[in-house]
């Protein structure tokens, strides 16, 4: 197909496709004349994954290039591929901590929380993961989010530790199983990686919204008249 | 107590306490001299709720004043109070949609999604809420987040509608029940309102982080070796 069709089916403007070609994110097409080239289905799958990594996941072009390189080296290992596309640090705000950065007037105690450890050097996140039996890499940024949240709540006077999160973690486990189920029917590694990015990142605001809606409904059920 | 102790126990600097007094968010203390006043326990509870609404929930001083006024009018109705403190629109970014605003390079199809309705004028959110049997106000901003997320996923080529969210909504319902359980042991309306804000808003990044950690663990379990 020509670049115009690649642009249309990949959902990315032609100028952006050309930019990705220049940056080496997309491999060149097969030249058909001095100014034209022919592109194939793998270009489309790759372009859609790039769109997800840059447009949805918020990665820089440089970080995306590295992720794509690593993905093609580990194509046959779904766990590695998912870790690569979901674990890479975004260039801009981390979605999971975005909510922490907007208040210009945050309470004193909530500032500069660091990962406190107990006498044995165990953070809240370590203890929670051990309790749940979850296998998670040492460097997962989400560990710090858990520990920092608990620090912040304690600094604000709420009596909370990792044990308070165990029932939430049990529900998160079931949510993650739903997430993974939805990747099971895709076998192409690039397609699966794209879907993992879209469903993980784009569902985040919806899952929080569902919690708010369910809270309102549950509050009406318990206290409404 | 003197203003210095109010500041310490409320977790807010003295200058900020004075600002809240001037703005009428806190009622004046009982004057003990030309320059000093005496404050009580209700000042502390109110100050902590103000701290939660402004510092954590992200409300403006004006919006906080209105919420506090409405809360004191409906103090005996927990459902009203929770709706007031959780439903008010923040002055800055809406946490639930914060993730949508950072990408300068979002995919074409994902821009300017509006709440599409079917022939009967029913949005995806309406259909989902009806299926779940949830009682939720017409104007809850979270409705739009659900509908917009589905629009965005469809625009990006993922075959998704409200039915796809039903299993997630069932888990959100159980999460909300946990949330409400944690308010049950507080009977003072101001304290309960403060705790609702802290647990709802501050747990958001932690719940997303738990999902990420659980995904990694579930991926290792299914595909790891």
From TrEMBL, chains A, B:
<protein>
    <submittedName>
        <fullName>Transcriptional regulator</fullName>
    </submittedName>
</protein>
<dbReference type="InterPro" id="IPR009061">
    <property type="entry name" value="DNA-bd_dom_put_sf"/>
</dbReference>
<dbReference type="GO" id="GO:0003700">
    <property type="term" value="F:DNA-binding transcription factor activity"/>
</dbReference>
<feature type="region of interest" description="Disordered">
    <location>
        <begin position="94"/>
        <end position="121"/>
    </location>
</feature>
<dbReference type="GO" id="GO:0003677">
    <property type="term" value="F:DNA binding"/>
</dbReference>
<keyword id="KW-0238">DNA-binding</keyword>
<dbReference type="InterPro" id="IPR000551">
    <property type="entry name" value="MerR-type_HTH_dom"/>
</dbReference>
<dbReference type="Pfam" id="PF13411">
    <property type="entry name" value="MerR_1"/>
</dbReference>
<dbReference type="InterPro" id="IPR047057">
    <property type="entry name" value="MerR_fam"/>
</dbReference>
<feature type="domain" description="HTH merR-type">
    <location>
        <begin position="1"/>
        <end position="70"/>
    </location>
</feature>
<feature type="compositionally biased region" description="Basic and acidic residues">
    <location>
        <begin position="98"/>
        <end position="109"/>
    </location>
</feature>
């Amino acid at each position: 197909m020509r670049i115009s069709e690649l642009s249309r089916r990949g959902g990315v403007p032609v100028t952006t496709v050309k930019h990705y070609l220049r940056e080496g994110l997309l491999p060149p097409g097969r030249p058909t004349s001095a100014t034209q080239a022919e592109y194939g289905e793998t270009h489309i799958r790759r372009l859609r994954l790039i769109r997800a990594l840059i447009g949805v996941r918020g990665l820089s072009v440089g970080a995306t290039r590295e992720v794509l390189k690593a993905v093609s080296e580990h194509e046959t290992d779904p766990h590695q591929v998912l870790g690569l596309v979901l674990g890479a640090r975004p260039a801009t705000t981390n979605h999971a901590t975005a909510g922490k950065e907007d208040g210009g007037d945050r309470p004193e105690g909530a500032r500069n929380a660091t990962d406190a450890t107990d006498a044995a050097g165990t953070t809240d996140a370590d203890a929670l993961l051990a309790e749940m039996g979850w296998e998670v890499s040492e460097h997962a940024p989400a560990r710090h989010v858990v520990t920092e949240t608990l620090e912040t709540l304690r600094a604000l006077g709420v009596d909370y530790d990792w044990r308070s999160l165990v029932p939430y973690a049990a529900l998160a486990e079931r949510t993650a199983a739903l997430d993974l189920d939805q990747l099971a029917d895709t076998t192409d590694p690039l397609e699966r990686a794209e879907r993992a990015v879209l469903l993980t990142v784009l569902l985040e605001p919806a899952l929080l919204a569902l919690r708010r809606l369910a809270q309102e409904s549950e509050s009406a059920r318990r206290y409404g008249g």
